[in-house]
Amino acid sequence: MRLFLTIGLLLVTTISLPGTSRASEEEEQAEKTVGKPKIEMVPFNFSVIKKGVVEGQASLQFVLVMENTTDYEFVRTRLPQIRSDFNTALTMLSRQHFNVNRPIDPDVVKAYLTPYVEHRLGSGKAEVFVKQALIHPN
């Protein structure tokens, strides 16, 4: 009985450790963005299509965080082009990686969209963050 309790406690401890480090990483990122100018984008709503069949609906909302206030106006004027790039990218990403039975991984989405932001704005002008990522089966 003690052996099972010890093994169970060990498993719970090792499982909970990675989650706490991820939470601390997210807190560090949040602290880095405090006080920086940001633009909240209108949510992207689109169908998740696999093999020509609509499997569900996805809704994603993003926040663009600029390094300084001088980049804010530059980014704001490029917002329609960024939105168009994101729309195309999310459609392709949804066909490859989204599944209506699993939640959307915001790290994958961020990594996929970052080159689009850097291409449109230049390197280091803005950083994209996933504010909301929902997926619903039909």
Main features:
54% helix, 138 residues, four-stranded antiparallel sheet, alpha+beta, disordered N terminus
Main β-sheet description? 4 strands, antiparallel
- Secondary-structure element sequence? HEEEHHHE
What is the overall shape?
A: globular
Q: How many β-strand stretches?
A: 4
Strand content: 25-35%
Count of discrete alpha- or pi-helical segments spanning 4 or more residues: 4
SSE class? alpha+beta
Weakly predicted, low-confidence segments: 3-18
Mean pLDDT: 84
* Radius of gyration, taken over Cα atoms and rounded to an integer in Å: 19 Å
Helix content: 40-55%
End-to-end C-alpha gap: 46 Å
Explained architecture:
This protein has 138 residues and is an alpha+beta fold. It is built from four helices and four strands; from the N terminus they run αβββαααβ. Strands 1, 2, 3 and 4 form a four-stranded antiparallel β-sheet that branches. A hairpin with a 2-residue loop joins strand 2 and strand 3 (53-66). The chain is globular, with a radius of gyration of 19 Å.
Outline of the structure:
The chain is built from 4 helices and 4 strands.
